[in-house]
Write a structure and sequence with these properties.
Blueprint lengths: L23 H19 L1 H19 L4 H4 L6 H27 L2 H19 L5 H12 L2 H10 L4 H12 L1 H19 L8 H20 L15 H13 L3 H7 L3 H9 L2 H16 L6 H6 L5 H29 L3 H20 L3 H11 L1 H16 L4 H15 L1 H6 L12 H38 L17
Amino acid sequence: MPTLSDPKTADIVLIDDVPAGAYRHARDDLEKRLLRKLDLRMSIILILYTLNFIDRTNISNARLQGFEKDLHLHGEQYATSLSILFVGYITMQVPGNMFLHWLEKPSVMLPGCMLVWGTVSLLTGFYTGIVVARFFLGIAEAPFFPGIIFLVSKWYKRDEVALRIALVSCGVFLSSAFGSLLASGILHGMQDKLGQAAWRWLFYIEGGITISVAICAMFILPDFPYNTRWFTPEEKELAISRLAEDSHDNADELRKQTTMQGLQDAVSDWKVWLFSVAAMFQIVGQSFITYFPTLCATLGYDATVTLLLCAPPWVFGGMIAFPLAWYSDKKQKRYKCYMVSNALCLLAFIISMFTMDKAARYISLFLMTPVVGGYLVLVGWISNTFAREPAKRAVAIALMNALGQTGNVIGSYVWPSNWGPTYRYSYAICIATLAVSTGMFGGMYLHLKHLNEQIERNERDVKDVNELRYPIGFRYLV
């Protein structure tokens, strides 16, 4: 039985070039088939992430249909029920990704987590201790998002990552748009069915869907390039060599870095901590996401119409996110794409601060949503920055996401009801935190540009390539 300190024991075959006698176009054709096959399998993550976000945020939709009244929540108790999820979420993220790196079976672990959180979500409809239920929901969900980011980073090259992360993570947009439509139908049509309040049916139905999909996902998700059963030997070799040629997964397999070494390397790298703290400020600035139905309700419509109005802004956000991620990969520009989405969000906050005009405020909701697309580009950037060491990358992604999620704990208290319906103070806080995160990531952008210049100078001036710290041709994506 392996332990967390054991090195990887998988036998890896690396190929540096095409087998003798094969034409380059034969390899290109095989690579296209490989990517099509992989993309098709990975697309299940879109559904998983949609359900993940629906189960996390359905409490916001339930709030519009008597949730607080039935559970006798007063004052800050609703905000506490939101924030407590992220306490459990933060606790288990780093251990979860370390365990995934050791287990090497994302096709088992990620759907397994999904089964647990689907069960917790379903039981929330029966249980009156909402704070306890939300805490355990956070623990169950914790390994999922950093796990899928790590899985994507183990299959795709650095200039393919941002678009793939955006594609598989656009469940944020789907859940916010179509989750609101689903909630509208349930809350409108299921009131008092079998003597149960409509908001309870929301948890029953959505939790049940999650459990069913999780079982199917176990047979669809890939593992890692060297241990996925449904790849041919040629496809496995190509999947590994593609990443070796991208100047990072050669280190992945040759160094066989242990999980505990990855933890040590990650916590001793100041870049991981800067990314983590900056992500915390960023997520406080994005805290409007959890309160989106509440903000939409300030337009003055009833619960059903409010939930229907929530959908179009998120559809628009998704339409912006894909071109943004595609451009980020195509031009290999991370920070500038992230900065554009933040600028749109800041403009939206300013509009909402200074007017109660329905049209202007609804337009501002559209301008807020692309910030999620920018955040997904940011996650890809973080993965790229630690691309050469898999164990360290696993911990770095989880640590950044875990510490970043403390922003959700703080953000849960940024939108108190007594600041509504204008929420001027809330918008002011979000403006300040987005400005701080943009500045911190800007500092990292300048630092990595400087490192790239140093790497280029060293390659030009060095006499012995063995003295180089980085592989020939390696550059940080900025």
